[in-house]
UniProtKB/TrEMBL annotation:
<feature type="domain" description="HTH lacI-type">
    <location>
        <begin position="5"/>
        <end position="59"/>
    </location>
</feature>
<dbReference type="GO" id="GO:0003700">
    <property type="term" value="F:DNA-binding transcription factor activity"/>
</dbReference>
<dbReference type="InterPro" id="IPR010982">
    <property type="entry name" value="Lambda_DNA-bd_dom_sf"/>
</dbReference>
<dbReference type="InterPro" id="IPR000843">
    <property type="entry name" value="HTH_LacI"/>
</dbReference>
<dbReference type="Pfam" id="PF13377">
    <property type="entry name" value="Peripla_BP_3"/>
</dbReference>
<dbReference type="GO" id="GO:0000976">
    <property type="term" value="F:transcription cis-regulatory region binding"/>
</dbReference>
<dbReference type="Pfam" id="PF00356">
    <property type="entry name" value="LacI"/>
</dbReference>
<keyword id="KW-0805">Transcription regulation</keyword>
<keyword id="KW-0238">DNA-binding</keyword>
<keyword id="KW-0804">Transcription</keyword>
<dbReference type="InterPro" id="IPR028082">
    <property type="entry name" value="Peripla_BP_I"/>
</dbReference>
<protein>
    <submittedName>
        <fullName>Transcriptional regulator</fullName>
    </submittedName>
</protein>
<dbReference type="InterPro" id="IPR046335">
    <property type="entry name" value="LacI/GalR-like_sensor"/>
</dbReference>
């Protein structure tokens, strides 16, 4: 191909109009999914990139999206947001946008950054992560009419303490832990413990709820559920302590954990007790984590995987819909709940004790 590929080049290759290519780049919600995928494939194939300076003059947009980069705790679960960020950045670039990272030590500092970034750099929009109950960031952005989307549900009903309705994308954690329990039940386990976070964390409560539903559906009485449920802060050491407590007092045959960090701690306790990291015989308990981190894959830990690439793409679509000026009042289409998938490995492949 001679010279730099143009909008016309993409249109001809994809057998669509120039306007359709423009909609794919700027208003993807207007384009049928089949056409969207075909045009994006051609954009990637020919290496088309919109002329940023000319388009910025025409649209008066910076075509820059802001996202707060959070501090990782143990280097394991931080990989989840790293993968989401990579997918978001990659897909934004294909559509002529850039993602700008910034740091803040808490919500108030993040809100302070919003004002500065909007005034000085004229950012177009923001992506928020780590949503939680009473989150003040969404209220501030709505009050200032700033386009944004959250990766994570609002954990308060709209209108609670001024919480607005807004676009969001999330992964169904309860469905993930329920699938983990049902997998273990199919293998013959009945004494399935849950190692999770203290109550009050929206994400943690959601993941605990899936375990509870599956166990109650199997007829496990409440007093036994209370004994099998342990809450602790996130981390490998914390997971190890929780597992020791359960093994000493309850003797579960399997563990479902709210994170891979906690699951790795459980595996460490099983290794110290039985001399083997991965369950490989009928005398050992099975373990399932959550987030399917690289460490889980390396050690053979079964884990619930989040569709992070899809989540990033859907979040970006919601942002571009707002930036195109056609968002209107939030509707069900502004709320995207994605299904996770269970990845079964050696840690939950063995038969339960007999």
């Amino acid at each position: 191909m001679d010279g730099r590929p143009t909008l016309e080049t993409v249109a001809q290759r994809a057998a669509v109009s120039r306007q359709t290519v423009s909609n794919v780049l700027n208003s993807p919600h207007l384009v049928r999914q089949e056409t969207l995928e075909r045009v994006r494939a051609v954009i990637d194939e020919v290496g088309y990139r919109p002329h940023g300076a000319a388009r910025q003059l025409r649209t008066r947009r910076s075509r820059v999206i802001g996202l707060r980069l959070e501090r990782t705790v143990d280097g394991i679960n931080g990989a989840v947001l790293d993968r989401f960020l990579h997918a978001l950045t990659e897909q934004a670039q294909l559509r002529g946008y850039r993602v700008m990272l910034f740091t803040a030590h808490d919500d108030a500092a993040e809100i302070g950054q919003y004002g500065e970034l909007l005034d000085v750099l004229e950012l177009d929009a923001f992506v928020l992560t780590s949503t939680h109950s009473g989150d003040p960031r969404t209220a501030w952005l709505c009050e200032h009419d700033v386009p944004f989307v959250t990766f994570g549900r609002p954990w308060d009903p709209p209108g609670t303490d001024g919480q607005p309705d807004h676009p969001w994308v999330d992964v169904d954690g309860a469905a993930g832990t329920r699938a983990a329990v049902e997998h273990l039940q199919d293998a013959g386990h009945t004494e399935i413990a849950f190692v999770g976070w203290p109550a009050g964390s929206g994400v943690g409560d959601d993941r605990r709820a899936g375990w509870l539903r599956a166990m109650r559906a199997a007829g496990v009485p409440q007093h036994r559920l209370d004994a099998l449920d342990v809450a602790t802060e996130d981390g490998i050491a914390e997971g190890a302590v929780a597992a020791r407590r359960l093994l000493e007092h309850v003797r579960p045959t399997a563990f479902v954990c709210a994170s891979d960090s906690l699951a790795l701690g459980v595996l460490a306790t099983l290794r110290s007790a039985d001399g083997d990291l991965i369950a490989s015989g009928p005398a050992q308990a099975a373990v399932v984590g959550f987030d399917d981190t690289p460490v889980a894959r390396a050690v053979g830990l079964s884990s619930v995987a989040q569709p992070l690439t899809e989540a990033a793409g859907r979040a970006l679509d919601l942002l571009l819909q707002q930036l195109s000026g056609s968002s209107g009042a939030p509707t069900r289409d502004h709320h995207v709940l994605l299904a996770p998938s269970l990845v079964v490995r050696e840690s939950s492949a063995s038969a339960p004790p007999t």
